[in-house]
Each structure stands twice: as structure tokens, then as C-alpha cells.
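--- STAGE predict ---
source: upstream dedup step, 1 unique chain passed
mode: sequence only
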Amino acid sequence: QQQNEKSHKDKEDLKSEIQRQREVLKNQEEGLRTELQQQMDKLPEQEEALKLEIQKQTVLLGQQQRQIEQQTKEHQEITEEMRAAMEKQKKEGDQRQTELQERNEALEKEKEGIKVELQQQQEKLQKEKEEIKSELAEQKASIEKEK
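--- STAGE serialize ---
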């Protein structure tokens, strides 16, 4: 009889422990679901911020490209002026050629500097874009895994 009562009590204890463990698991699952939902809710906001940053960088690159185009136009104009000045110098011994040549060289150096800077910024933007894509892919994969 005592053995039977002990066995019955052990079964009851076991049932209560199982029930307690189920509650713990249920609470953990609830917490994980909430955390996952919070992360998923943040994704559109993060993606929007990244899109805006990319848009801003694209605008800056466009401005720099227009600046290079303007300098290229100035360079062409100066080259034309140099040709005319060279002919005039042959006739008149004018010093204009030297001045234009110096101005042209300065613009050429400036143009090259801007080209290098533009290339670096384009590479940086591309790298950031790849990192952002990678981060988003990792977050999505993590979220899918947690589901």
C-alpha cells in the first residue's frame, strides 16, 4: 500500500514537473516570438534608412560628375584658346600661351584629383551597398532560422 502511494505521489510529482517545464517552454517561445516580431518590425525602417543613404550618395556622385563635365568643357575651351594663342604668339610673341598652359595644367590636375576622388567614393558606395545587402540577407536568414 505504501509503495503504491509512493508510486502514485511520484507520478503526480512527475506530472507537475512536466507541466511546469511546459509552462517554461511556452513562456520562452512567447519571448522568442516577441523578439522575432520586434526584429522583423525594425527591418523596413532599417531598409528605408539605407535606401535614403544610397539615394543621398547617388545625388552627391551626380553632382561630382556634373562638376567633372564642367571642368572638361573648360579644359576644351582652354585648349582651343591655347591653339589660337599659339598662332597669335607666332605673330606677336605673346606670353598668353604660357599663362593658358599653366591654367590648363592646373585644371587637368584638379580634374584628375576629382576623378580619383569620384572613383574612390563610387567604390566606397559599392562596398557599403554590398555590406548592406549582406547584412539584410543575414538578418533575414537569422529571422527565418528563428522561425
